[in-house]
Amino acid sequence: MGLRRTSILRLFESYADSHDDKIGPEGVERMFTDMHIDPLDIRGLVFAWKIRAHRPCEFSRKEFVDGLVDLGVDSLPKLSKVIEGIEKYIQSSNDFKSFYAFAYDYNREPDQKSLSIETAASLWQLILNGRFPLLDDWLQFISTKSHSIPKDTYLLLLEFADSIAPDLSNFDDAGMIGYAEVLQQGLTHSVGLRSGAWPVLIDEFVDHMRHRSVPP
């Protein structure tokens, strides 16, 4: 049987706010509960990404209906299965960068240019867990900072996480090759990653880790 748009509309209406044409926080929580997804699970963020949602814990009629049409599903069991498959797929695909970038804009307050430390830390814990070997050290380090996280720092942390050796041995202070050139040549894992080619916060983190490892 083909995709039934009427079924998608009924599904939307079963979770939508009675006073507004959208699925609000309570409806999102009920829907994810019915899908056996913790609202803080990465699959919830994957779903928001795939339907191009604009605000956390809120799905408009257009986002929801058009999103499910694009995904080719018209029921909750089908949606749950598709989202689980997408979550596994993006971990090893180029789409992960798109998903990671989406998470920044999706969680940024409309009147703010940057993410708070707390929000960024929550996203990194959710998205980079198991991918970034120095994640716990990074989260502990940024917890001492008071400024917000600009988008360039957020985006480049993914490149850093995917490139850096756990012992920081490929972070070369005296290297002759800049990070932009490293990316262009695809040599990230075979050459030193030069200090100064990264955002200041990442340079400071490397200095922090190196000083911490020096015997007293």
From TrEMBL:
InterPro entries: DCN-prot, DCN1-like_PONY, PONY_dom. One of its GO terms (cellular component) is ubiquitin ligase complex. Residues 3-210 form the DCUN1 domain. It comes from the Eukaryota. It holds the Pfam family Cullin_binding. One of its GO terms (biological process) is protein neddylation. GO terms for molecular function: cullin family protein binding; ubiquitin conjugating enzyme binding; ubiquitin-like protein binding. PANTHER family: DCN1-LIKE PROTEIN 3, RP42 RELATED. Neddylation of cullins play an essential role in the regulation of SCF-type complexes activity. This is Defective in cullin neddylation protein. It comes from Compsopogon caeruleus.
